[in-house]
Amino acid sequence: MADKKISELTELTTPDGTEELVVNDSGVSKKVQIDNLITGIDDNATSTAITIDASENTTFANKVTVNAGGLEVRAGGEVIIRRTDNGWDYRLRQVSNRLDIHSGADLVTPVASFTPVGITFNGDTAAANALDDYEEGYHDATIYINSVAWTGTVNNRRLRYVKIGKLVHVVGRIYIAGGCPTGSTDYFSFSLPFLSPSGSDYETSNEFQNIRFNDSYTFRLHGGASELKMQNDGSNAAMNVSSPHLNVNLTYISA
Predict the structure, then answer these.
(1) How far apart are alpha carbons 12 and 251 in whole angstroms?
(2) What are the tens digits of pLDDT across the range 38-80?
(3) Beta-carbon count within 10 A of 161 CB
(4) For the chain, what are the domain ranges?
(5) Is the pTM of this model over 0.85?
(6) Considering the domain 135-253 in this protein, what is its CATH number?
(7) CA of 236: how far to CAs of 27, 41, 177, 218, in Å?
(8) Distance (Å, rounded) from C-alpha 211 to C-alpha 182?
(9) Which residue, among 178, 135, 177, 138, has the nearest Cα to 158 in the 3D structure?
C-alpha cells in the first residue's frame, strides 16, 4: 500500500474500540487496541484514573463534570456541588471581587459572600455589615486606682472573652487578697481587652456579683474607653474593703 498523507486518510468517526495502532516497544513493533489506550480515562475505566502531579497544570476551556452527587467545575470561576438526585445543592460563583455561595437553584440571592472586608449574608454586600472577626482569648486586667495602674498584689486578674465582629463578651474573676487602697477618693477601675468606640451611644454598665463590698455598685464603660470604672449613683467609687472578689460579666461593642 502506497504511503498517504494523514489528510488523505479516511476519517474514523465511530470507533468501536477494536481498532488497532502500531507502537514501538523497545524496538519491537506491537499492536494496541483503542480500548486499551483509554482504559483509566473513559467512564468504564477498570484501572487507576489519570493522575496530575504537582509539576503539571491543567486548564478547562468549558467545564468538567463529575457524576451525579459530585462536583462540576465551570468556566468563569463557578463550582457546583450536586446532590445524588441531580438537584442543586451548593453553587460557588466568583462575582467581581467576592465569592458567593448559593443554596439550591437560586442564583439571585447568595446565602453568604466572602469579600475582602469580611463575610456578608443573604445578598448583603455592604462593608459595614460584613462579619470581619471572630476571636477567643484572655485579658489580664490592669487594676487602676484613680485611673493610675496599681502595683499591688492581685491574686487573679485574668478575664476570658469572645469577640464576634465588634461585639465583645467578657467574663472572669478579679481577686485582690491583700486589699487595695481604701480611701474615700481612691476610685477603683480595671482594664478591658478592647477599646470602645467614641460616643455616648456606645456606653454601657452592669452590676457584678461581689464579695466583701456593697452590691449596689455598678461598673460603667464610657465611649472611647477601655477602663471599666466602679460607680455609686453615677459617681466614681472606691472599693473600701480588703480582699475583694469581683465576678465580671459584661457585653460591649468594641471600636
Answers:
(1) 75
(2) 665 555 555 555 566 666 666 655 556 555 556 777 777 788 8
(3) 21
(4) 19-47, 63-129, 135-253
(5) no
(6) 2.60.40
(7) 97, 78, 22, 10
(8) 15
(9) 138
